[in-house]
Specification:
Keywords: DNA-binding, Transcription, Transcription regulation. The protein has 356 residues and is of the alpha/beta class. The chain has 13 helices and twelve strands. The chain folds into three domains: 43 residues; 107 residues, Response regulator (Rossmann fold); 153 residues, Response regulator (Rossmann fold). α1 crosses α2 and α8 runs parallel beside α9.
């Protein structure tokens, strides 16, 4: 039986009458290669289904051409969209992607870091868990020279590239919209108070109340760790909320998972939305507009966040010089008005939506 022999860049160069360095530059999209030569090489490798030998690349460049990703939960539609953005950039650049989940657990997050290091990843993209207050694992990565980029949930004090959204503005818009609809007793149900994004959303919520001369009521703010017992946590929160002497007439929820669980708990208690309780979610759920009552949402450009994070990480990996200045890129959020937050008629809803 004839033994398989992989095609090398030297083989491609010989067939096309080019130098090995020219083929290499064309494959890696380096400067100084004409569009015609690049097309010639790319057309040929597509024809012969050429794949670079990852072991050879690793030996040549001392790189694994792989990156690690840590998120709280892949099933969360927001994070799955971000992962799609990461993969779209990474694969085009010739990198494999290893995705891990922390399940909002600090210990699991540290285990994920160790596993990714053991796989010799060239860099790591991280959205920290709701439990994480000790960042020594990430400082250790920096000491080892392993690039780290934080996205969505980023620590305040670590020098690193960060890709985030304007959480303050998003929370302000959500709260302001409810107020403009005539809901003045607004509860805010959010994730762990240890997360910077939750601090920013609380501040945006408070600022909107202040703008419209509504007193901030700490009884209306509830924190949820969003771990394995999230249903029990949200059940308890909804029970507490509904039994307040001055019961809220609206809810602003801080995440996909929270929104789903809160809505389930409210339905079990025969609370009709928006008649009995208005609702706005900070969510990227694709199902937001097919709920029994379509949800008003603050959405985040998840795909673009993933793409931007991957570009920054790969740029850092491939940089020939030490990073002296880190970037923080902030994306805007978008308010999409649906029926869950409306006191007005459908005709008024259409008019308001057109004026956004």
């Amino acid at each position: 039986m004839k033994r398989f022999k992989p095609t090398t860049q030297r083989d491609i160069a010989n067939v096309l009458g080019l130098s090995v360095s020219t083929v290499s530059r064309a494959l890696n999209d380096f400067y100084g290669i004409s569009a015609e030569t690049k097309k010639l090489v790319l057309d040929y490798i597509n024809e012969i289904e050429y794949y670079p030998n990852p072991m050879a690349l690793k030996l040549r460049d001392c790189r694994s051409y792989s990156i690690g990703v840590i998120v709280s939960e892949i099933a969360n539609s927001y994070f799955s969209q971000i992962i799609n953005g990461i993969e779209s950039v990474a694969y085009k650049k010739g990198y494999n992607v290893f995705v891990t989940q922390s399940h909002e657990c600090f210990q699991q997050e540290n285990t994920n870091i160790k596993q990714l290091i053991s796989h010799s990843v060239d860099g790591i993209l991280v959205s920290i868990s709701s439990e994480t207050t000790d960042f020594s694992g990430f400082y250790s990565l920096k000491e080892k020279g392993i690039p780290v980029v934080f996205f969505d949930r980023a620590p305040r004090d670590i020098d690193a590239h960060k890709i985030i959204v304007d959480n303050f503005e998003g929370a302000y818009k959500a709260t302001e919209h409810l107020i403009k609809q005539g809901f003045y007793k607004i509860a805010h149900i959010t994730n762990s108070s240890d997360l910077l994004i939750e601090e920013e959303r609380i501040e945006g919520y408070k600022a909107a109340l202040s703008t419209y001369n509504i007193d901030y009521n700490p009884e209306y703010v509830f924190y949820c760790q969003c771990r394995k017992n999230i249903r029990e946590e949200t059940e308890a929160i909804v029970n507490q909320l509904l039994h307040l002497d001055n019961r809220p007439d609206g809810i602003f929820s801080a995440s996909d998972k929270l929104s789903t669980e809160i809505l389930i708990a409210l339905k079990k208690r025969n609370i009709t939305i928006p008649k009995d309780m208005a609702f706005v979610g900070f969510t990227n759920m694709a199902e937001a507009d097919i709920f029994e009552c379509p949800l008003t949402t603050i959405s985040q450009p998840a795909l673009e966040i993933g793409e931007a994070a991957a570009k920054l990480l790969i740029g850092q990996i491939e940089s020939k010089s030490t990073i002296s200045q880190y970037k923080t890129k902030i994306f805007e959020t978008e308010l999409t008005i649906r029926e869950s937050s409306l006191k007005c008629s459908k005709s008024e809803f259409v008019s308001e939506s057109l004026n956004q």
